[in-house]
Amino acid sequence: MAGVTHLIPDRTEEKSILKAMKENSTKITIECNNEMDMYYFPAKKISVSEYQKVTRKNLKKIIMVGETGSGKSTLINAFVNYAAGIEIEDPLRFKLVNHEIELQTREISGYLIEDTLFEYPIMIWDTPGFKFANGRKIDEKIEQQIQKLLSVEDEFHAICFVIKADVNRLTDVQNLIIDNVKRLFGREAEKNMYTLTTFGYGDRPEVLRTLMRSNFPFDENRWFTFNNRHLFKTESQRWFGSKIYWDITINSIIQFHNTLAHQLPFGITRETRKANVFGYMKVESDEDYYADYVEELSSPENK
Ligand SMILES: Nc1nc2c(ncn2[C@@H]2O[C@H](COP(=O)(O)OP(=O)(O)OP(=O)(O)O)[C@@H](O)[C@H]2O)c(=O)[nH]1
Ligand SMILES: [Mg+2]
């Protein structure tokens, strides 16, 4: 993990961003109580099927992958609360991904996060965790959605592999995710793969040794640790240790985004795109369209 300097921004700027965010947000009335108000974070949810490439100056494109329950959606919620300027004592929180409505992420969704404390806009993609229990079919559907996304989006800054801190042996599912990510994004992606450990205590987690022995291109400089246990806890639900976990997360969010600020994107190569288009073409009914697309990719101008 990169250094641990605190770069907490100026509170005045934070408060004005927070005020603007609140004004643009809808309250989630059923989730409010006398200690805390809950708001939908003002960012549009975009599905892969309706996605058209977004262009913004300095836009950073991130995708979260990892086993079900590893904490991907919660981590995205932590990012947006920080981005809105929320501190642990504040009596309100934002939700981008709403667990109460959707306990498990069912499909890949993108969110454009802009005009926040982050110094650049972010397009972040949340993916459902690959599962064996629900059968192979569901995993194939996720894979096809990623392939479809990669046919529209040709570069990414970070592929974030989210994994619990205490994993001491990779499961078949985790190995499968690593293999799939490497295959779908291609070799060029290896320098843009980040390890985001969740459920951490702030120390060097066991999972790092596990990852170093695995097929995953682990890089110490692209590792950040989080614990989001207390993200949505109200004052009476928190204990004195909550602030420590909160600070671990805030510190890592800042370090992660500082690293990302200097991260060059990797491009999806023509070969990888072609393989991906063939991948999801297998199940698409509109095969002619995709055949045309593959032809277009093969044309000399695209070489
Ligand atoms: N203690 C603790 N709990 C966490 C942490 N991160 C997430 N959780 C909890 O773990 C559960 C699963 O988190 P999610 O964010 O839904 O996991 P996910 O990876 O998005 O799961 P899928 O959408 O099924 O792929 C939720 O109940 C979270 O509140 C963490 O860092 N510490
Ligand atoms: Mg999720």
UniProtKB/TrEMBL annotation:
Family named by the database record: Belongs to the TRAFAC class TrmE-Era-EngA-EngB-Septin-like GTPase superfamily. AIG1/Toc34/Toc159-like paraseptin GTPase family. IAN subfamily.
One Pfam family of this chain: AIG1
GO MF annotations, alphabetized: GTP binding
Annotated ranges, domain AIG1-type G: 61-213
Record's keyword terms, sorted: Nucleotide-binding
Keyword check for Flavoprotein: no
Name of the protein described by the UniProt record: AIG1-type G domain-containing protein
InterPro entries: G_AIG1, P-loop_NTPase, Sigma_54_int_dom_ATP-bd_1
